Amino acid sequence: MAEPSDGYTETIQSVAAEQRRIRVESTYTPPSLETIVSIARDDLPVSPLDLRTFLVEELAVVQAKIKSDDVDSWRGFYDQAEVPHEEERCRDHLLLLLRQGSTGITFTPEAHVAADKEVDIACSIGTLRLPIEIKGQWHRELWRAADRQLAGLYAKDWRADGHGIYLVLWFGNQVAEHKHLRGPGRSIDPPRTPEQLREMLVSTSLAALDGKIEVVVLDLSRPLTH
Predict the structure, then answer these.
(1) What is the CA radius of gyration of the chain?
(2) pLDDT, tens digit, 9 for 90 and up, residues 117-154
(3) Which helix H or strand E contains 148, and what residues bound it?
(4) The domain containing residue 208 runs over which residues?
Protein backbone atom coordinates (compact mmCIF):
# COMPACT_ATOMS: atom_id res chain seq x y z
CA MET A 1 0.00 0.00 0.00
CA ALA A 2 1.34 3.43 -0.93
CA GLU A 3 2.44 5.70 1.91
CA PRO A 4 1.45 9.40 2.09
CA SER A 5 3.90 11.90 0.62
CA ASP A 6 6.48 13.53 2.89
CA GLY A 7 9.67 15.56 2.56
CA TYR A 8 11.57 12.62 1.11
CA THR A 9 9.05 11.61 -1.55
CA GLU A 10 10.46 13.69 -4.42
CA THR A 11 14.03 12.58 -3.67
CA ILE A 12 13.04 8.92 -3.59
CA GLN A 13 11.08 9.24 -6.83
CA SER A 14 14.02 10.97 -8.51
CA VAL A 15 16.47 8.24 -7.43
CA ALA A 16 14.06 5.53 -8.56
CA ALA A 17 13.71 7.17 -11.98
CA GLU A 18 17.49 7.38 -12.33
CA GLN A 19 17.86 3.71 -11.41
CA ARG A 20 15.30 2.78 -14.07
CA ARG A 21 17.23 4.80 -16.67
CA ILE A 22 20.50 3.10 -15.72
CA ARG A 23 18.84 -0.31 -15.92
CA VAL A 24 17.58 0.35 -19.46
CA GLU A 25 20.96 1.69 -20.62
CA SER A 26 22.89 -1.21 -19.08
CA THR A 27 20.71 -3.85 -20.72
CA TYR A 28 20.54 -2.22 -24.17
CA THR A 29 21.87 -4.40 -26.96
CA PRO A 30 22.62 -2.68 -30.27
CA PRO A 31 21.03 -4.26 -33.36
CA SER A 32 23.14 -6.69 -35.37
CA LEU A 33 24.46 -5.83 -38.83
CA GLU A 34 21.97 -8.34 -40.26
CA THR A 35 19.10 -6.51 -38.57
CA ILE A 36 20.28 -3.09 -39.80
CA VAL A 37 20.59 -4.35 -43.38
CA SER A 38 17.13 -5.94 -43.17
CA ILE A 39 15.56 -2.69 -41.98
CA ALA A 40 17.35 -0.66 -44.67
CA ARG A 41 16.05 -3.01 -47.36
CA ASP A 42 12.57 -3.14 -45.81
CA ASP A 43 12.89 -6.92 -45.61
CA LEU A 44 10.95 -9.18 -43.30
CA PRO A 45 12.23 -9.46 -39.69
CA VAL A 46 15.36 -11.52 -39.05
CA SER A 47 15.56 -11.38 -35.23
CA PRO A 48 13.14 -11.30 -32.28
CA LEU A 49 13.86 -7.60 -31.72
CA ASP A 50 13.36 -6.89 -35.44
CA LEU A 51 10.04 -8.77 -35.37
CA ARG A 52 8.92 -6.90 -32.26
CA THR A 53 9.74 -3.56 -33.86
CA PHE A 54 7.90 -4.57 -37.03
CA LEU A 55 4.80 -5.58 -35.07
CA VAL A 56 4.73 -2.36 -33.04
CA GLU A 57 4.66 -0.50 -36.36
CA GLU A 58 1.82 -2.74 -37.59
CA LEU A 59 -0.13 -2.02 -34.41
CA ALA A 60 0.33 1.70 -35.06
CA VAL A 61 -1.27 1.18 -38.47
CA VAL A 62 -4.14 -0.72 -36.83
CA GLN A 63 -4.56 2.16 -34.37
CA ALA A 64 -4.86 4.61 -37.26
CA LYS A 65 -7.49 2.44 -38.93
CA ILE A 66 -9.52 2.22 -35.72
CA LYS A 67 -9.54 5.98 -35.36
CA SER A 68 -10.16 7.09 -38.92
CA ASP A 69 -11.06 4.44 -41.47
CA ASP A 70 -14.31 4.57 -43.47
CA VAL A 71 -15.78 1.32 -42.12
CA ASP A 72 -15.75 2.25 -38.40
CA SER A 73 -13.34 -0.51 -37.39
CA TRP A 74 -13.73 0.54 -33.75
CA ARG A 75 -17.22 -0.97 -33.71
CA GLY A 76 -15.78 -4.46 -33.87
CA PHE A 77 -14.58 -4.10 -30.30
CA TYR A 78 -18.09 -3.34 -28.95
CA ASP A 79 -21.39 -5.18 -28.78
CA GLN A 80 -24.71 -3.75 -30.01
CA ALA A 81 -25.19 -1.88 -26.72
CA GLU A 82 -21.71 -0.35 -27.21
CA VAL A 83 -20.26 -2.25 -24.27
CA PRO A 84 -16.70 -3.47 -24.88
CA HIS A 85 -16.44 -7.11 -25.87
CA GLU A 86 -14.48 -9.52 -23.71
CA GLU A 87 -10.79 -9.89 -24.48
CA GLU A 88 -11.10 -12.97 -26.71
CA ARG A 89 -13.64 -11.30 -28.99
CA CYS A 90 -11.49 -8.15 -29.13
CA ARG A 91 -8.46 -10.29 -29.97
CA ASP A 92 -10.28 -11.92 -32.87
CA HIS A 93 -11.24 -8.56 -34.37
CA LEU A 94 -7.68 -7.34 -33.86
CA LEU A 95 -6.40 -10.39 -35.75
CA LEU A 96 -8.57 -9.46 -38.72
CA LEU A 97 -7.07 -5.97 -38.78
CA LEU A 98 -3.50 -7.22 -38.42
CA ARG A 99 -3.90 -9.79 -41.19
CA GLN A 100 -5.07 -7.08 -43.59
CA GLY A 101 -1.68 -5.41 -43.66
CA SER A 102 1.01 -7.90 -42.70
CA THR A 103 2.37 -10.12 -45.46
CA GLY A 104 4.70 -12.97 -44.55
CA ILE A 105 3.74 -12.95 -40.86
CA THR A 106 1.48 -15.67 -39.46
CA PHE A 107 -0.83 -14.65 -36.60
CA THR A 108 -2.10 -17.54 -34.49
CA PRO A 109 -4.62 -17.14 -31.63
CA GLU A 110 -4.27 -19.18 -28.44
CA ALA A 111 -0.94 -20.61 -29.59
CA HIS A 112 1.07 -23.06 -27.50
CA VAL A 113 4.44 -21.74 -26.37
CA ALA A 114 7.02 -22.81 -23.78
CA ALA A 115 5.90 -25.09 -20.91
CA ASP A 116 2.66 -25.87 -22.80
CA LYS A 117 1.26 -22.40 -22.07
CA GLU A 118 -1.10 -20.56 -24.39
CA VAL A 119 -0.56 -16.96 -25.43
CA ASP A 120 -3.25 -14.69 -26.88
CA ILE A 121 -1.48 -14.18 -30.22
CA ALA A 122 1.70 -15.75 -31.56
CA CYS A 123 3.31 -13.89 -34.46
CA SER A 124 5.55 -16.15 -36.53
CA ILE A 125 7.95 -15.95 -39.46
CA GLY A 126 10.50 -18.68 -40.10
CA THR A 127 11.95 -19.77 -36.76
CA LEU A 128 10.91 -16.51 -35.06
CA ARG A 129 7.81 -16.46 -32.89
CA LEU A 130 6.83 -13.44 -30.82
CA PRO A 131 4.06 -13.56 -28.18
CA ILE A 132 1.46 -10.83 -27.75
CA GLU A 133 -0.38 -10.90 -24.43
CA ILE A 134 -3.64 -8.90 -24.36
CA LYS A 135 -5.40 -7.42 -21.36
CA GLY A 136 -8.53 -5.28 -21.22
CA GLN A 137 -8.32 -2.18 -19.04
CA TRP A 138 -10.56 -3.87 -16.47
CA HIS A 139 -8.48 -7.03 -15.99
CA ARG A 140 -7.42 -7.81 -12.43
CA GLU A 141 -3.88 -8.65 -13.62
CA LEU A 142 -3.55 -5.47 -15.69
CA TRP A 143 -0.67 -4.07 -13.65
CA ARG A 144 1.22 -7.37 -13.23
CA ALA A 145 0.73 -9.45 -16.36
CA ALA A 146 3.68 -8.00 -18.32
CA ASP A 147 6.05 -9.53 -15.78
CA ARG A 148 4.12 -12.49 -14.42
CA GLN A 149 2.61 -13.85 -17.61
CA LEU A 150 4.36 -12.45 -20.66
CA ALA A 151 7.97 -12.25 -19.46
CA GLY A 152 7.60 -15.00 -16.85
CA LEU A 153 5.99 -17.59 -19.11
CA TYR A 154 5.35 -16.87 -22.79
CA ALA A 155 8.46 -14.90 -23.80
CA LYS A 156 10.68 -17.67 -22.45
CA ASP A 157 9.95 -19.66 -25.59
CA TRP A 158 13.27 -20.13 -27.43
CA ARG A 159 11.86 -18.61 -30.61
CA ALA A 160 11.11 -15.34 -28.79
CA ASP A 161 14.40 -15.00 -26.89
CA GLY A 162 12.65 -13.13 -24.10
CA HIS A 163 10.92 -10.62 -26.36
CA GLY A 164 7.18 -9.92 -26.42
CA ILE A 165 4.46 -7.30 -26.66
CA TYR A 166 2.11 -6.48 -23.81
CA LEU A 167 -1.00 -5.07 -25.47
CA VAL A 168 -3.56 -3.26 -23.33
CA LEU A 169 -7.01 -2.32 -24.59
CA TRP A 170 -8.04 1.18 -23.51
CA PHE A 171 -11.76 2.03 -23.72
CA GLY A 172 -11.82 5.14 -21.53
CA ASN A 173 -14.44 5.89 -18.90
CA GLN A 174 -17.52 6.03 -21.14
CA VAL A 175 -18.21 2.33 -20.72
CA ALA A 176 -20.18 0.05 -18.41
CA GLU A 177 -18.93 0.09 -14.83
CA HIS A 178 -17.62 -3.49 -14.97
CA LYS A 179 -15.37 -2.47 -17.87
CA HIS A 180 -13.85 0.59 -16.19
CA LEU A 181 -10.09 0.95 -15.92
CA ARG A 182 -8.61 -0.95 -13.00
CA GLY A 183 -6.56 1.50 -10.95
CA PRO A 184 -2.89 0.97 -10.07
CA GLY A 185 -3.48 0.96 -6.30
CA ARG A 186 -4.32 3.08 -3.31
CA SER A 187 -3.00 6.62 -3.11
CA ILE A 188 -1.98 6.52 -6.79
CA ASP A 189 -3.91 8.62 -9.27
CA PRO A 190 -5.17 6.50 -12.19
CA PRO A 191 -4.06 7.44 -15.72
CA ARG A 192 -6.40 9.69 -17.68
CA THR A 193 -5.14 8.94 -21.19
CA PRO A 194 -3.79 5.92 -23.09
CA GLU A 195 -0.36 7.57 -23.12
CA GLN A 196 -0.36 7.97 -19.35
CA LEU A 197 -1.43 4.36 -18.92
CA ARG A 198 1.46 3.16 -21.08
CA GLU A 199 3.97 5.28 -19.16
CA MET A 200 2.72 3.93 -15.83
CA LEU A 201 2.73 0.31 -17.03
CA VAL A 202 6.30 0.67 -18.27
CA SER A 203 7.48 2.32 -15.06
CA THR A 204 6.05 -0.49 -12.93
CA SER A 205 7.29 -3.41 -15.07
CA LEU A 206 10.81 -4.77 -14.66
CA ALA A 207 10.45 -6.66 -17.94
CA ALA A 208 9.56 -3.47 -19.83
CA LEU A 209 12.38 -1.54 -18.18
CA ASP A 210 14.83 -4.31 -19.11
CA GLY A 211 14.01 -3.59 -22.75
CA LYS A 212 12.65 -6.90 -24.03
CA ILE A 213 8.94 -6.37 -23.39
CA GLU A 214 7.23 -3.60 -25.38
CA VAL A 215 4.10 -2.09 -23.85
CA VAL A 216 1.47 -0.93 -26.35
CA VAL A 217 -1.86 0.65 -25.37
CA LEU A 218 -4.48 0.51 -28.09
CA ASP A 219 -6.99 3.36 -27.86
CA LEU A 220 -10.41 1.87 -28.56
CA SER A 221 -12.51 4.64 -27.05
CA ARG A 222 -15.59 5.60 -29.04
CA PRO A 223 -15.22 8.64 -31.35
CA LEU A 224 -16.43 11.87 -29.77
CA THR A 225 -18.53 12.65 -32.85
CA HIS A 226 -20.38 9.35 -32.57
Answers:
(1) 18
(2) 889 999 999 999 999 999 999 999 999 999 999 999 99
(3) none
(4) 9-219
